[in-house]
């Protein structure tokens, strides 16, 4: 019996430890959200230096949204001296944490460079961002394909335009098929699921 009591006690201690860690993590997460919001409020008020300071504290702990904001601050000179290279460093940190916005921004940073190697890297990040749900990345890639901006991207497939007589012939065949099926199953045309026939 004492061995069983020891096992139960161990399980209870494990469960208690798990609950404390979960509670601490959720409190820490809420604190992170508050700090991020404080930075956003400072930014919206035009206090870019305070926003940068709030986001920096989070970014150095690995918070990917804060890392994106730090990158944007460096890219645009918000609260700090403009520095595109440092912006890319912060985008890269967030992009490696699977932040789709950072992947998009890093991709744009690279494709706007002069180096072909950077273009390939940029397209890789843009594809990852699109695969992770970033709509801006998908729109950019679609536009780039349609306009042939990058030889590394496969061109958009063009659909063959139909000639007017092909379209009319197809429509006529469809109407004849619908009318024939209605006539053979003794269903009146007025009860057809296709209105107007």
Topology, please?
Blueprint: H1 2-44, H2 48-59, H3 64-76, H4 84-96, H5 100-111, H6 116-131, H7 135-147, H8 164-184
Descriptive overview:
- α5 (100-111) packs antiparallel against α6 (116-131) and α6 (116-131) crosses α7 (135-147).
- The model is unreliable at 4-28 and 176-197 (pLDDT under 50).
- The longest helix has 43 residues, at 2-44.
- Among the domains are: 30-87, no CATH class; 98-151, no CATH class.
- The protein has helices at 2-44, 48-59, 64-76, 84-96, 100-111, 116-131, 135-147, 164-184.
- It starts with a helix and ends in a 13-residue tail after the last helix.
- The radius of gyration is 29 Å and the shape is elongated.
- It has 197 residues and is an all-alpha fold.
Describe the sheet with the most strands.
Answer: none
Strand % is under 5%
Helix content: over 70%
N to C succession of SSEs = HHHHHHHH
Structural class: mainly alpha
How far is it from the N-terminal to the C-terminal residue, by CA?
83 Å
> How large is the radius of gyration?
29 Å
Estimate the global geometry from the Cα principal axes: elongated
How many β-strand stretches?
Answer: 0
Helix segment tally: 8
- Catalogue the unreliable spans: 4-28, 176-197
Task: Please tell me the overall pLDDT.
Answer: 75
Key phrases:
197 residues, mainly alpha, 0% strand, elongated, disordered C terminus
Summarize it:
With 197 residues, the protein is mainly α. The chain has 8 helices and no strands.
């Amino acid at each position: 019996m004492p061995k069983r009591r020891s096992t139960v006690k161990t399980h209870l201690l494990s469960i208690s430890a798990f609950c404390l860690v979960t509670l601490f993590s959720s409190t820490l997460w809420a604190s992170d959200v508050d700090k991020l919001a404080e930075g956003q409020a400072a930014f919206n008020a035009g206090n870019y230096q305070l926003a940068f300071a709030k986001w920096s504290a989070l970014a150095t702990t690995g918070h990917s949204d804060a890392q994106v904001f730090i990158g944007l601050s460096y890219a645009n000179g918000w609260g700090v001296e403009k520095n595109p290279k440092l912006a890319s460093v912060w985008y890269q940190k967030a992009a490696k944490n699977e932040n789709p916005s950072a992947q998009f921004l890093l991709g744009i940073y690279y494709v706007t460079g002069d180096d072909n190697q950077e273009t390939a890297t940029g397209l890789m990040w843009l594809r990852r961002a699109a695969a992770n749900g970033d709509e801006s990345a998908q729109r950019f890639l679609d536009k780039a394909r349609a306009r042939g901006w990058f030889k590394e991207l496969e061109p958009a497939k063009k659909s063959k335009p139909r000639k007017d007589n092909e379209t009319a012939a197809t429509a006529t065949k469809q109407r004849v098929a619908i009318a024939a099926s209605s006539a053979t199953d003794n269903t009146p045309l007025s009860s057809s699921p296709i209105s107007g026939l």
